[in-house]
Amino acid sequence: MPKQQTKPTPPNSSPAAPPKPQPAPEPYGSSGPIRVRRLLSHASDESRDFFENLMLEWDKGAHNLTETAFMLSANALGYRYIAVQADAEEKEHLECIDTAAQILFDGKWIANFLRRLLRVYRGSKELDFDTPEDTLFVLEQEMEDFDNDCEIAQGVLRDNPEALAAELQKLAQERPELFSPTTATTDAA
Fold first, then answer.
1. Three-state SS for 27?
2. Which of 22, 27, 127, 170 lies at a 20 to 30 A Cα distance from 41?
3. Cα–Cα distance, 165 to 172 (Å, whole number)
4. CA 157/CA 108 separation, integer angstroms
5. How far apart are CA 60 and CA 162, in angstroms?
6. Rounded to 5 degrees, what angle do the CA atoms 103, 108, 112 make?
7. DSSP H helical segments within the chain, as ranges?
8. Tens digits of per-residue pLDDT, 25-51?
């Protein structure tokens, strides 16, 4: 039998890289049910249980898929009160919860007060928040802290006027728009 001839590879050349393997084609295409089956086959037991519960609740027809997923997700993540409110279809309550979240994320003074109020509400044994006085107690604490901070700041400014002057000069150089008359009148309006 004659020998087969092979081409010699020139020196300093690397052999061609093997072709990348292609994923196996889906036997029945990639329809929704097949993708769901594939995803669930690789999912955790917790995810499979959640999906099964989602299908059961959605099948009841009381809510659309988005509402059902929202309620079950809130419940699964530990936000049971939100899930109950969503289930009761109390849209105004959900809008209030959304507004409260927006306030908390804005970071203004009211956000800090609400965070403090909520922390006290969650952890307080003494306050039951049955009366406005309980909320006012928390507000008074917030006001006392604010007054203390102001007094400390006034003391620092009184004791270090040179530091204040230096900081104001530095700020004026870095942000001159803060000291322009047009900005001051615009901000006041």
1. strand
2. 22
3. 10
4. 24
5. 72
6. 80
7. 32-41, 45-59, 65-76, 80-87, 91-106, 109-123, 132-159, 161-174, 181-188
8. 555 556 778 888 888 888 899 888 989
